[in-house]
Write a structure and sequence with these properties.
Four copies of one chain form a homotetramer.
Chain A: E1 2-7, H1 12-22, E2 27-33, H2 42-45, H3 62-68, E3 71-74, H4 80-90, E4 94-97, H5 107-113, E5 127-128, H6 131-139, E6 143-145, H7 149-163, E7 173-178, H8 193-196, E8 201-202, H9 210-222, E9 229-234, E10 241-248, H10 255-265, E11 272-274, H11 283-286, E12 292-299, E13 304-311, H12 315-329
Parallel strand pairs in A: 1-2, 1-3, 3-4, 4-6, 5-6, 7-9, 11-12
Antiparallel strand pairs in A: 7-10, 8-9, 10-13, 12-13
Chain lengths: 345, 345, 345, 345
């Protein structure tokens, strides 16, 4: 059994890790930490988990979490993980970090959008945990920078198309929409029910910090510098994320080229579903699952492609992908414990 | 493997059966029927199921469904099942009916609220599939009348208390609230998003047809005639049902008597969770699960008890309980394939 | 022009006062106070009000608010108003308090559920601002205790029936449901979108502090002691409140007696609508308005009445009724500026 | 008093016309027609209107509506209005049509996306009722083609920028999002609460029929051919529409040029609010109002502008703008009866 510790277990991504891992046949959750709820049974914080999880939340202690875990999931605000990771790795444990701290290879990019990086030496060995793209590297990794939710929706459809040069790398515009759970579980005015319901709005227009994360990976995979325009929006729903991506097609590219490219690239990947023509991806269809559904349509008059991708921001956009990374790192079927069947409604 | 046929597979309860049974280790779904979608792949009707279910919806045919199933779930409007059941049973198959057709032992009660019953002879052998109460009878049953959603929330807490004579049988008032999915998947004005959101209202006040169903079972279990006042309401949410039940306490009854009664009655039942004092059941805590959470509080000034029970109307209130019935009928662990971990949000 | 000051203008009830009064032909809003937003333009806190209200929020100052107002609305947490009211009244201004501080005539009842009362001497002259019941007293009042939202839904239908002795005063059970805005605008975990959506639950079961408020008024109007069982619930919607009220009918009382009683009692009242038989009140029908819609049905088998009343908790349940009180106090048409036409959806 | 007839009064836009006009000081609604509800009191179809509107829905009759109206609003499915309009105009009445039938000057464009046009001769005199742009023409018009909701959000910000040549006309990409009420009041599967909630999706990708409507007007105003890429999406909310518009800036254009252009163009217009830097338009801020809020941000790295505009699709996107047109046609203040103050939540 893989012994799992979860740091930051009472946020939404932490609790989602508990949900997914509670049914994992190869895993035993041994320790849950929570600053705000130390000493409180996890099923008092999440009464839904009564009878399912009987652990008590503890204060975070590196010694204790190392003693009791083979792998540590860090579902903490950025800045904290880079402080803890070096010691945990030194103790021979694996680390899957859901924050931004280990997503960048170039510390300067991280520091521009976040803060001074205190564990730069780890960045060269950390692996960006976009499972369908970096599967082979993940197998051997000890430290994973689990991708952001927006980047997951954008990178999965764009990487194959950029690698095959089917679209113009300078033309990319990303219009993304996220459910409210992306804002986390800390009480804030904008996340209140009355403020969010009947409210659709953009935020951090043109300067969201997932932009450099996407650009670093897109550039690496395209083999040349790629920059994008990115606008995130907030949708009055709990879970779900959809990105509508616009790009100019390379000369002579037709719908069939796009379909062939995506289908062959993701042929054997259990969580990528390329939608048939005329069927639009829908956040409801992936709710609670680790799927990324991708559809597209050509606007032939303007020689543009419109790509639509959807995920559950808490699953493929966070905790599901984190577990997928763990499965790959430990040589288990990558889909293990991630086969939640979606609800019809 | 148990071969399962589902009649009416494209309604919400039918699709929920497909969801639950798709992961069942002892089951193979062999046939899905749908009047409206015959010839259409199930995953075109529910694109969420792409890659999970590749069956094509067929027109209902008794011969065909009998040839391919060991058990038939009927997720059809009432009236149809009583027409089909006799022949299916004659073919040696088991039937689990989610309509009201086989919930009553007394055809007169059914006919008063529904319509003329055309298979009265089966009513004496049909078993009311409230699993925690009729477990032993269900084991040997061939025909199950799966309970209504409202009755499930009301009968589970009240039966132990009435059997132990802790409450006054004449004082029961039930104020129930249901999510919109209870109205089914057929387009109707009242189920439209714009009509339902920001709308809370009662309906069928004082004459909902789940009333006689509850009264028949309560009377049988109490050993004397029980009648209740029942008001259902519609809540702007998709899934979930909560009943607030008021009753006058018998002389000298204290909180501890109630707790002991409920706790001991449901001690070994995997899906009943009695909430600790001060914790209120919440539909969100049981969403997608087969749990029934029960809490209570005494209003000592008025010598009344306030009981609150919650379920997911599509799971414990319909398809989950139907699968639980199947498990019991086939000698499988009753919780098999029903251990969905609830989402934190 | 009546000069109006609003203390606590950036909570939901404060902002709702601004909305309603912005169109009032006899009113000029002169001062808005907000502890949290002092110095901030009101339309930065509520960008919807851009172009409508150009006031800047100020810190609360008794001198300043007295200098600039003929009437002060206090949309503050309880405890604060009783500290401010004496001085404002002494300055010859009228006070309409939306907190609980001046709702009770008996300070002991207030103190049991709230805290020590520091302006007890004012309680004998403060008027409970339930407009349809205390119209005559309100005309001459200088200090109004504006009713709670739950009490408004309960008192309006029950007072006429109790006065006419049509129901048994010992049998009253109130099952109430409120939208999330009732919890106010301060960020809290339970008011988060993700925690509230798909969540229906009871809270403060059997000991909500609106209970003594209702009981005091019911007892006064019935002329004898009345106590009730009260259970409030939280509904996943923004605005709206519905109470389902159960009571045993007095001997021989029929539906027509109830209808006659309510219709004649509220004949000339512009905001009370008695629903025809078979039409259920719906929160959506009163959203944004000052209406209280009342319907009822008899459960003849049990000799009970089921009464349903709905209001918008922020309007008739708070700020709308407060303005109605102001109108009455100043001798204006009580409906002035309160004739918002409800949205179809 | 202007006598107003509303054809199609029981759809959402029809009912919204009734709401807005019920308070209009210069208007008397004389006749409401509804195929589905003929003979039914309007306040039975919309119980919220009890005590406000006592008209009875009638079958549509040209004679009757002409006899009783000075202006006829047609809130009917396209195709019907072009059949009725000629005769109504001949009778000397004004017509404001909320369908697409009279939005195009070029019948070929209409026919390509809709159907054969049977009143082509009227197209040369019909005026496209985008009030802020065609104010002068509207004053003298007898026949208005009231703009589509999506076009309203797109044309208002783009026309000034295109006229001033601040953006590249070939680069325009429009990503729009609409609440569910845009789909109307006829029951349909996709508009069901359970299908819409937690569902965000695109539809009619790249071929929605509002595209030619937008292109015709943009081309006319730009003085050259303009074509756009347009993707509409469905948001789980009742009312509200937001468009995110991307375009490449002309050489040397800075933020201040954009702001100056929009501010001066709309200086005197009561319903256009240009948001200050850093404040994002939000559907909640315009809910129930006739405002169009416009904000923008430059992505300087890519030399693109991101424009965001929001309206209430049923008000400025339909019935509010229709009433604004009426006001202009009859020489009344264009804002008359359209000054609904937005709710804080």
């Amino acid at each position: 059994m893989i012994r799992v510790g979860i740091a930051g277990a009472t946020g939404y991504t932490g609790a989602e890790l508990v949900r997914i891992l509670s049914n994992h046949p190869n895993v035993k959750i041994t320790i849950l930490t929570s600053r705000q709820n130390k000493g409180v049974p996890f099923d008092r914080v999440f009464p839904a988990m009564s009878g399912i999880c009987d652990l008590i939340c503890e204060e975070f202690s590196i010694t204790k979490i190392c003693d009791n875990s083979d792998v540590v999931f860090m579902a903490l605000p950025h800045k904290l993980p880079m402080g803890y990771a070096p010691e945990i790795l030194k103790a021979g444990k694996k680390v899957i970090d859901l924050s931004a701290d280990f997503r960048f290879n170039d510390p300067a990019k991280y520091e521009k959008y976040y803060e001074p990086h205190v564990a730069k030496e780890l960045l060269k060995d950390s692996v960006y945990g976009l499972c369908e793209i970096y599967f082979e590297k993940i197998k051997d990794a000890n430290l994973i920078g689990n991708p952001g939710c927006y980047p997951t929706t954008v990178l999965l459809p764009l990487i194959p198309l950029l690698k095959s040069k089917l679209i113009d790398k300078n033309s990319i515009i990303v219009d993304s929409k996220s459910g409210v759970s992306g804002a986390g579980r800390s009480p804030s005015l904008t996340s209140l029910y009355c403020e969010a319901t009947e409210s659709f709005k953009a935020y951090k227009i043109g300067n969201h910090r997932h932009t450099p994360e996407m650009e670093e990976i897109l550039s690496k995979e395209a083999g040349e510098n790629v920059s994008i325009t990115f606008t995130p929006h907030l949708v009055p729903m709990s879970r779900g994320m959809l990105s509508t991506i616009y790009a100019t097609l390379s000369d002579g590219i037709k719908s069939s080229h796009i379909r062939d490219c995506l289908s062959s690239f993701y042929k054997a990947r259990p969580f990528i579903r390329i939608k048939p023509d005329g069927m639009a991806p829908d956040t409801l269809h992936v709710r609670g699952t680790n799927y990324c559904d991708i559809g597209f349509k050509l606007d032939e008059r303007k020689n543009r492609i419109i790509i639509i991708s959807v995920i559950d921001n808490l699953v493929k956009g966070a905790s599901g992908q984190a577990v997928q990374n763990m499965n790959i790192m430990f040589g288990i079927d990558e889909a293990c414990s991630l086969k939640t069947i979606p609800f019809p409604v």
